[in-house]
Backbone:
């Protein structure tokens, strides 16, 4: 279940608010609004992005941005409970009995892996197929990150281009005092726009996507190990303990606390 990532939106909002506050403490906001400078940075960097990447990858920018704005919790604790239950059932009734559980699995990666286990694929084949899937997933994630990293490196460069344009306009109009101000505004503000866009939005989004990708791949690696343990008929308790290794110490304590509470409830 995806939920809105408050930290991403809140971080960008807080950064913009503090920058605006700093501006308003020393000058009116209108002094920092320059449409030619915005056009140079946004238009130029977007054009360079179109040159750098194929159209199919550019089309995915909106979808990739949504991945940064919405978080999907990778609950390894719930995964441990799920596979412990599957292992118990497999030991009692056999692997074929797990076919009834396939339709209840929402994750296609987990469902396909369990189907291979039920169908009797060799463990080496299952690992190879699923790890190939993981490698391709990582490559797709890396492509999305590269779009924002490249965009983040291009935007300040076009800010500098805007600065050069503004300086040229200013120097060619020294005999006209009315042109010096607008030229200087373009010269200074385009650098400001490029640096702000890159360091407050684009590069942080690339970093957030990288963090999300690492978490998802680690979660799916846990699924692979659990499926292979399930196929090998490993004790359900061992499967659960193996998955706890993917948890941070505090999360591990929380899961163990829930398990203890559940055991006491069963005794009562």
Residues:
């Amino acid at each position: 279940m995806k939920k809105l990532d408050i930290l991403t939106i809140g971080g960008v909002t807080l950064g913009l608010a503090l920058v605006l506050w700093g501006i308003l403490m020393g000058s009116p906001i209108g002094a920092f609004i320059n449409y030619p400078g915005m056009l140079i940075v946004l238009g130029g960097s977007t054009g360079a992005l179109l040159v750098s990447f194929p159209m199919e990858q550019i089309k995915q920018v909106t979808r990739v941005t949504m991945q940064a704005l919405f978080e999907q919790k990778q609950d390894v604790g719930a995964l441990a409970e799920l596979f412990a239950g599957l292992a118990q059932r497999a030991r009692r009734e056999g692997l074929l009995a797990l076919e009834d559980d396939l339709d209840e699995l929402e994750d296609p990666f987990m469902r396909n892996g369990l189907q291979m286990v039920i169908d009797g694929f060799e463990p080496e084949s299952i690992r190879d197929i699923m790890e190939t899937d993981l490698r391709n997933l990582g490559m797709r994630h890396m492509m999305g990150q590269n779009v924002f990293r490249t965009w983040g490196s291009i935007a300040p460069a076009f800010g500098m281009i805007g600065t050069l344009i503004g300086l040229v306009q200013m120097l060619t109009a020294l005999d006209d005092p009315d042109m010096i101000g607008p030229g200087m505004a373009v010269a200074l503000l385009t650098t400001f726009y490029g640096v702000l866009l890159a360091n407050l939005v684009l590069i942080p989004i690339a970093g957030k996507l990288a963090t999300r990708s690492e978490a998802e791949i680690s979660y799916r690696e846990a699924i692979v190990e659990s499926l292979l343990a399930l196929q090998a008929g490993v004790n359900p308790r061992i499967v659960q303990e193996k998955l706890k290794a993917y948890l941070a110490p505090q999360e591990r304590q929380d899961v163990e606390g829930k398990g203890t509470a559940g055991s006491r409830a069963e005794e009562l």
In short: The longest helix spans residues 177-231. The CA atoms of residues 57 and 143 lie 8 Å apart. The beta strands are 2-4, 70-72. The chain has one domain: 42-260.
